[in-house]
Structure formats: structure tokens, C-alpha cells
Design a protein that fits this description.
six-stranded parallel sheet; about 180 residues; alpha/beta; single chain; 6 strands; globular
Length: about 180
């Protein structure tokens, strides 16, 4: 029996009529841990790509406890300190696409909050259990170049990926009901 996590959708909810501005695409991730395995190799490459290509139309934000090496070397990434649930959800909704390059997590929670805010997901192939809960509304990538390729797919099919988000699956109520029925 697998009981997938869910989040409080009175806090983490989407903007339903959101339209993607393809000239100003806002990517976001958030982590409580600053561990390098949270995806900082990919985030470093993304930061460099955006810095080297100022007209690429991409912006990237990391929210949370940010890796010190990344902080010191980042040139284009907006960094926001950890936020409480409501502030975090408001920040997530201000973005378009959620990225998690985290590795080997049994199942994180950050991608659930991002998806619940209406953001399609790009997740690393080695994300562990994260991939399982993003199968309908996200795309798995293998490395940075593949991330850029998969990003184009989501951008070109943005409304389709947003429609695929199963908010019931992501809800804490579904999680609690599932767990209680198992017990």
C-alpha cells in the first residue's frame, strides 16, 4: 500500500485562468534543505544559462534554505528565504512552471505544493518517489540539456499540462482518507 502525500488546498491552490506569457516564463523551486542533492548541479547550470542568454525569456527563483555555494556563485537566480505556508503558496502561484532536480528522495513534499498551486512539473529522473506523483502533469528530465528540451514541451503545451493536474490526488483530504481506509 502506498499512501501518497497531499497538501492543504485551502492554502495551496491554483490561479485557474492563468495564461503563460512565453516571453517571461517564471520557473521556481523550493527546498527546506540546502543539501547539494536537492538539485544544485542543475540549478547552477540553469542560472548560468539564464545569465548567458538574457533574452531567453526565463526567470528562476529558489525559495527556502539555499545552498551556500550556489548563493555565492549565482548570477541570475532570485533567492527568497524560507516562507510560511500562505506566503510560500502566494510566491509559488506567481510562477509558471515548477522544477525539482532533487535526487533520491523517497517522496518530497515540495512538488506537491507546487502542483497544487497549478504549476506543471519538471522533475529529475533520479528524483525517487517524486516522479510517481508527477506522472500526469509533469515531465521527467535526465540532465540539463534534456531539461531545456522538456521545458519547451511544457511551454508549448502549457494549458494541457495544467489541465492534467489532479487536485484531488494532491489534496491532504485524499491522503488522510486513503490512510484511514487502509488502517
Amino acid at each position: 500500500f502506498v499512501c501518497y502525500s497531499g497538501c492543504d488546498q485551502t492554502i495551496f491552490y491554483p490561479i485557474y485562468q492563468k495564461v503563460l506569457d512565453q516571453k517571461n516564463i517564471k520557473l521556481v523551486t523550493h527546498h527546506w534543505s540546502d543539501n547539494y542533492l536537492k538539485g544544485y548541479d542543475i540549478y547552477t547550470q540553469l542560472d548560468k544559462y539564464i545569465y548567458d542568454n538574457p533574452n531567453c525569456g526565463l526567470k528562476f527563483t529558489i525559495i527556502g534554505n539555499i545552498n551556500n555555494e550556489f548563493k555565492e556563485n549565482s548570477k541570475a537566480t532570485k533567492m527568497i528565504e524560507p516562507l510560511n505556508n500562505k506566503e510560500l503558496a502566494d510566491q509559488l502561484r506567481n510562477n509558471d512552471i515548477y522544477i525539482t532536480a532533487s535526487r533520491f528522495e523517497p517522496c518530497g513534499f515540495h512538488h506537491i505544493e507546487g502542483s497544487s498551486c497549478g504549476l506543471p512539473i519538471l522533475c529529475h529522473k533520479d528524483s525517487g518517489g517524486i516522479n510517481e506523483s508527477c506522472v500526469n502533469h509533469g515531465i521527467v528530465f535526465t540532465d540539463f540539456n534534456d531539461l531545456l528540451d522538456k521545458l519547451k514541451i511544457i511551454i508549448n503545451n502549457y494549458s494541457t499540462y495544467r489541465r492534467k493536474i489532479d487536485y484531488n490526488f494532491l489534496s491532504s483530504k485524499r491522503c488522510y482518507d486513503s490512510f484511514l481506509s487502509f488502517i
